């Protein structure tokens, strides 16, 4: 599995799965969430509204969990929405932050994805320092890659087909933080 960090626009990534740093409503917002909703088109909002109509998501998506929708007008086949902990609201659990990355990887494997692109979930509007996010994300993905290489993924009956995990960062400081964490 190749793991890389690049500077760019997550909505333009030619991957199977794009991860959305969503809010718990799943109905769009600012930052990465707003950009993905805008690029995917109105059918993404309709799909998210349909999810919210399900009993499981009646109160929204739980922090650290993830759920998939089609990618619609994105190059990506799917969008995996995950909700990071909001430090501004007192949600300071690195375990919940790690779960965002882990659950997104699990869902990507369930979908049969070969490639996935992540933003810096939790950084920005949710108040996490990008270096902290990079450290947590790199730890989860490296651990996942090591387990996948050994053919042992918790809860999986078949090996991961993921070949590429890409972190797509919006600026040079975030890119540098992820490059350090992945080194």
Summarize the SSE layout with pairings:
Elements: E1 2-7, E2 17-22, H1 31-40, H2 42-53, E3 66-70, E4 78-83, H3 94-111, E5 115-118, H4 130-149, E6 164-169, H5 172-182
Parallel strand pairs: 1-6, 2-4, 2-5, 5-6
Antiparallel strand pairs: 3-4
Explain what this protein looks like in three dimensions.
There is one protein chain. This protein is α/β, with parallel strands linked by helices and 183 residues long. It has a single domain, classed as Leucine Aminopeptidase, subunit E, domain 1 (3-Layer(aba) Sandwich). Helices cover 39% and strands 18% of the residues. It has five helices and six strands, in the order ββααββαβαβα. A six-stranded mixed sheet has the order 1-6-5-2-4-3, with helices on both faces. β5, α4 and β6 form a beta-alpha-beta unit. α3 packs across α4 and α4 packs parallel to α5. It is globular. The two termini are 15 Å apart.
Report a brief summary of the structure:
It comes from Cellulomonas soli. By secondary structure, the protein is α/β, with parallel strands linked by helices.
Low-confidence stretches: none
The major sheet is characterized as: 6 strands, mixed
Q: Please provide the count of β strands.
A: 6
CATH superfamily: Leucine Aminopeptidase, subunit E, domain 1
Shape: globular
**For the residues shown, what is the average pLDDT?**
94
The number of helical segments is 5
Proportion of β residues? Answer: 15-25%
Q: Which percent bin holds the helix content? A: 25-40%
CATH class: Alpha Beta
Q: Widest sheet: strand order?
A: 1-6-5-2-4-3
Radius of gyration: 15 Å
**What is the CA-CA span between the terminal residues?**
15 Å
- The class by helix and strand makeup works out as alpha/beta
**Which architecture per CATH?**
3-Layer(aba) Sandwich
Count the domains. 1
Give me the strand/helix succession.
EEHHEEHEHEH
């Amino acid at each position: 599995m190749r793991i890389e960090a690049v500077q760019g626009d997550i909505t333009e990534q030619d991957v199977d799965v794009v991860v959305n740093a969503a809010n718990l409503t799943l109905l769009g917002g600012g930052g990465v969430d707003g950009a993905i909703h805008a690029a995917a088109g109105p059918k993404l909002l309709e799909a998210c509204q349909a999810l919210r109509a399900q009993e499981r998501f009646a109160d929204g998506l739980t922090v650290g969990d993830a759920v998939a929708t089609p990618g619609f007008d994105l190059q990506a086949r799917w969008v995996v929405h995950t909700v990071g902990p909001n430090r501004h609201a007192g949600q300071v659990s690195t375990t919940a932050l790690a779960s965002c990355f882990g659950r997104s990887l699990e869902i990507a494997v369930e979908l049969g994805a070969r490639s996935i692109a992540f933003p810096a979930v939790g950084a920005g509007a949710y108040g996490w320092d990008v270096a902290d996010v990079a450290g947590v994300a790199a730890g989860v993905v490296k651990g996942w890659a090591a387990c996948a290489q050994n053919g042992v993924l918790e809860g999986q009956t078949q090996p991961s087909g993921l070949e590429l995990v890409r972190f797509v960062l919006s600026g040079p400081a975030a890119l540098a933080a992820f490059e350090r964490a992945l080194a």
